[in-house]
Design a protein that fits this description.
Blueprint lengths: L11 H6 L18 E2 L25 E5 L28 H14 L3 E5 L9 H9 L6 E6 L8 H7 L3 E5 L5 H8 L4 H11 L6 E7 L8 H7 L5 E7 L7 H4 L5 H12 L3 E2 L8 E5 L6 E5 L12 E4 L4 E3 L6 E4 H6 L4 H13 L12
Parallel strand pairs: 1-13, 2-3, 2-11, 3-4, 4-5, 5-6, 6-7, 7-10
Antiparallel strand pairs: 8-9, 9-10, 11-12, 12-13
Helix pairs in contact: 2-3
GO molecular function, one term: cyclic pyranopterin monophosphate synthase activity
Keywords: 4Fe-4S, GTP-binding, Iron, Iron-sulfur, Lyase, Metal-binding, Molybdenum cofactor biosynthesis, Nucleotide-binding, S-adenosyl-L-methionine
Catalytic activity: GTP + AH2 + S-adenosyl-L-methionine = (8S)-3',8-cyclo-7,8-dihydroguanosine 5'-triphosphate + 5'-deoxyadenosine + L-methionine + A + H(+)
Length: about 375
């Protein structure tokens, strides 16, 4: 097994071997896709579902992901270019008060789970007050956060005191050199300091790993080996090419191929019972403390049981995490919209959600 922090033979040759740059056309890159406005009627008699958070396919949405910032302290190759992306002016981003108000509106409709994302959420200076404010909203039972962990170690205790109850950390490799090549920034040791500390502060710490052919597919078994004596939930995420170009598709690894490598190494694995609305197919090695799973957005989508909505850092409601249809809750709030009418806007948008996201499936 790879020793954490071990370097592979230099960096110049591996850069050639492990190149993963996604060569999208400008209009296909995630930073340049223009949102499609969701058409909303101003009157309260507009068509909505059985409840405002129920879409036309009967899916009830109880989970809201809120992006706190577009900024990130890494430049991961599959996420953004080296020079970064144009940022939305600060005045266009949601304030902490607006985030709390939006949370309250959703909570009154039945949302009980919030996840804070980015960008990198730890770059938001008012992160702790935001978590405290969300925690004071009636009906919210869980506050989670997804982070790269680079700047999180020293903040963990205060964040938990503020109300953070779940944590996902993103790490795609166990090699320090590969990490710095992929992220284009240092930070590997900081991430592991965070992992080592967080493992003892949360019931089951989740580690998210995007798997890419010719980059980290060979590390899947090493990640799983960590679960044998550590209470970790390793979640292997299928790489999602943007725009469907052939170059990016070559990096895609279906979860069954990953699972096959794990079974080849460890023998029989135990399939765990899925919970309602789970996005991960969960497994474990017999006798292990932790578990592992696969998020199969590409090969076996889970749209039929989706209960997730997203609010972007600039206040747009996205009813599908992988779609570009949006409606601005920020503009509604800043124009003086009351809570009932805001919830009507939310209900109309949710009702228009499609049966499944398009353009990202592998047959």
């Amino acid at each position: 097994m790879l020793i954490r922090g071990q370097k592979f033979n230099g960096l110049i040759e591996p850069i050639k071997r492990y190149s993963i740059k996604v060569k999208c056309k400008p209009e296909e890159s995630p930073s340049s896709v223009k949102p499609t406005p969701i058409q909303i009627k101003p009157d309260s008699n507009a068509l909505i579902g059985e409840t405002p958070l129920t879409d036309k396919f009967g899916r009830f949405h109880s989970y809201l992901r809120i992006s706190l910032t577009e900024k990130c302290n890494l430049r991961c190759q599959y996420c953004m270019p080296l020079e970064g992306v144009p940022l939305t002016p600060a005045s266009h981003l949601l304030t902490s008060e607006e985030i709390i108000r939006i949370t309250q509106a959703f909570a009154e409709l039945g949302v009980d789970k919030i996840r804070l994302t980015g960008g990198e959420p730890t770059m938001r200076k008012d992160l702790i007050p935001i978590i405290e404010g969300i925690g004071n909203v009636s009906g919210i039972q869980q506050i989670g956060m997804t982070s790269n962990g680079v700047a999180l170690h020293g903040k963990l205790d205060k964040l938990i005191q503020a109300g953070l109850s779940k944590l996902n950390l993103s790490i795609d490799t166990l090699h320090e050199s590969k990490y710095e090549f992929l992220a284009r920034r240092p930070g590997f040791k900081n991430v592991w300091k965070t992992i080592d500390k967080a493992e003892h502060l949360f019931d089951m710490l989740k580690l998210n790993c995007v798997v890419m052919r010719q980059f980290n597919l060979d590390e899947v078994v090493d990640f799983v080996e960590l679960t044998q004596d550590r209470k970790l939930d390793i979640r292997f995420i299928e790489f999602m090419p943007f725009g469907g170009n052939d170059y990016a598709l070559k990096k895609f690894v279906p979860y069954k191929e990953m699972l096959g490598k794990i079974i080849e190494k460890f023998g029989e694995v135990e399939r765990l019972q899925d919970h309602p609305n789970d996005t991960s197919k969960a497994y474990k090695i017999k006798g292990s403390k932790g578990q592992f799973g696969f998020i199969t957005s590409m090969s076996e989508h889970f749209c039929g049981t989706c209960n997730r909505l997203r609010v972007t850092a600039d206040g747009n409601l996205k009813v599908c995490l992988h779609g570009n249809a949006e409606v601005s809750l920020r503009d509604a709030i800043r124009s003086g919209t009351n809570t009932k009418d805001l919830q009507n806007i939310i209900g109309q948008a949710v009702y228009k959600k499609k049966a499944k996201h398009a353009g990202n499936f592998i047959n």
